[in-house]
Amino acid sequence: MKKATTLLLILVMILSLFTGCAGEPAADAEKVIKIGVFEPQTGENGGGGFQEVLGIRYANTVYPTVDINGETYKVELVEVDNKSDKTEGVTAAQSLVSAGVSAVIGSYGSGVSIAAGPIFADAQIPAVAPSATNPQVTEGNEYYFRVCFLDPFQGTVMANYAIKNGAKTAAVITQLGDDYSSGLGSFFVTAFNELGGAGSVIAEEQFQTNQTDFKAILTNIKAKNPDVIFAPSSITTAPLLIKQARELGITVPIMGGDTWENATIIENAGADAEGIVLSTFFDEAEPATDEAASFITGFKEYLKANNQGEIIPAVSALGYDAYITVLEAVKAANSTEGPAIKDALKGVSVVGVTGSITFNETGDANKDMAFIKIVENGQFKFLETVTVE
């Protein structure tokens, strides 16, 4: 009997312990806001996408929290790999929606951004693209924004540069089915023909995705003898195209867009990369803002710690800027809800690494300046800034 009584008392004590715990307020759990990182880390654009991711990750170390209604929230990055593919991009976008992110940053590569746009819009989750330059990314989608300039501007910048440097005729090479390559090539053609006169673009060639032999295309172009070649393409394709052009004896300047500012192009094209010209968003030698100066110092240390070298890719700077722009909108919205953040984005004003960032009515950044660089002695060398009215 004593044993039964003792067991009963122990049971009562245990139950009272649990009851007491339930009645006491639990310690506040850490508040978290999830930001999706929608980027290619594999596939044709994996190299550039990873550089963009590095800028976003670094920004998260600099600004790991955000205040909402007087409470501090930890910013948790939810990364997905869209694999440089439109179909995979849709799946990756849907996984971010399922993960409950409040906003999204990405993507490197306009094609996957365009494909994922309706997913984010339907879920009412705002997305901010660091470097997706095709106009269709934000066109008709109030939930998509970007912090970079657009391809119509970039195409005009490169056409201006070519003509100013004596080119009277041009050839254009683009990738069939790639929104970035074909879009930028088309804008260059329009601008070059307007500036130099109708018919100034004397050759237009296209290649297939994953194509590695460009000799037939380049032979056709060589026969027409243009003064310059404009070939916006991925960092995977560019070295092959450049090397094969030089092997065929083509000596005219070869130009590309912002994707070409990548050390792997110089590494893979070797001496044949000398003299290539490109447009880009940022130059670390000329920091435009205090944020830029701080970023350059800190990000170089971050790159070194992660065995990534010391050259700062422009897309890393844009990834950083997209992150701080999203955080500014979250603070302004005082909310983790997508529609409120989207509305706040329309009115944000951020002084970032790549300059001041505000958005127009279509969600595009109000930017009017590009940096022109050339490869000289195995390094990217700043030539000039270009503004187009």
Automatic annotation (TrEMBL):
PROSITE patterns: PROKAR_LIPOPROTEIN (PS51257). Residues 33-379 form the Leucine-binding protein domain. The keyword Signal applies. The keyword Signal applies. Keywords: Signal. InterPro entries: BCAA_transport (IPR051010), Leu-bd (IPR028081), Peripla_BP_I (IPR028082). It comes from the Bacteria. Residues 1-22 form the signal peptide. Belongs to the leucine-binding protein family. This is Branched-chain amino acid transport system substrate-binding protein. It comes from Acidaminobacter hydrogenoformans DSM 2784.
